Structure formats: C-alpha cells, structure tokens
Amino acid sequence: MLGGDAQAFEALYDRQQGGIYRYALRMSGSPTIAEDVTQEVFLSLMRDHSGYQESRGTVKSYLYGMARHRLFRRLERERSLVSLSGSDEETIETVYAQLRSPNDPFGELVRNETIDMVRQAILSLPENFREVVVLCYLQEMNYADAAAVIECPIGTVRSRLARARTLLMNKLSQLASDTATKVKTEPAI
Asked: Residue 38: is it exposed, middle or buried by C-beta count within 10 angstroms (0-12/13-18/19+)?
C-alpha cells in the first residue's frame, strides 16, 4: 500500500474500516461523526501515507490514533454528547430477571433498553475513561495496543479502566435508583 498498490489499500480499508467506524461511533454516539471521522482517516491515509512508521507500531494502532485525533478535534468543536436524563427503563434487577426468562415476549425489548442504558452511561464518561472502555472492551484491543493508540503507558490504561468501571457502576446504579423512584411515583394505568 505504501508503494501505491490500490488493491493493497482496498484490502486494508476492508479490514480496518469497520473497527474505525465502531470506535468513532462508540466514542461520539453519532453515526454522522463516525462516518466523517472514518472517511477522513482513510482519505488522509491515501493522501499522505508517509506519516506511518512501522517502527512506531502497527498499522491498526496508527489508524486508530488518526481516528482518535480527528474525533477529539470534532468533539471539541461540537460538544454534543448524549445526556443520561429522561431514561424510562425499569430497575436493573427487573431488567436482569426479564432477560433470564426465555419465554418472556418482551425480553428482546428489555435487552435493547438495557444495552441503550449502558451505551448512554459509557457516553457520559469523561473522554479519557470512555476511550479506554471503548478500545479495550468494545473494540477488544489489548492493553498494549490501546496504550499505543492513546500514546500513554500500559499502566495508565489499566488505571483508567479501573476508574472507568467504578464510574460506570455508579452511573448505572444511579440510573436504576432514579428509574425505581420514577416507577414507584407514576400512577398505574
């Protein structure tokens, strides 16, 4: 690809485009931003592929790093993160009980609402914590690759993940208690 082979570029695009898009989507919560960032990464790679240096890491890490920088610039401009307010989901305990019941006709709906609640909680994390959750848990990168993308030590990735897990648990617990209070105070139909 570095030598100008169009088929090599297409193969690289086919292998990496989906992951870059999902990373940008999970970090921003916006399909439009994710599409734009993904397009910018690969257009930039086509125009100026000389920025990649094999000695500094893998092509995958290089692409995620490019996506990261473009995404943060875009988010800085737009400052449009998803809010956690207005959630109508049931309590966490009720959700999990319904998910375990295979005969429940509403199980898929509840599962989707739970997934949406977790996505919202992830999007509400500060960027440095959200980033390690997305890279390590959602993109399934190992700590070393995530550290290469973020340009920090592996220990920093580990500590941010630990802090992010704590923040997520607190946010999800708060959502569950807020929802339980809302369910108890709403009149029955």
From this structure: buried
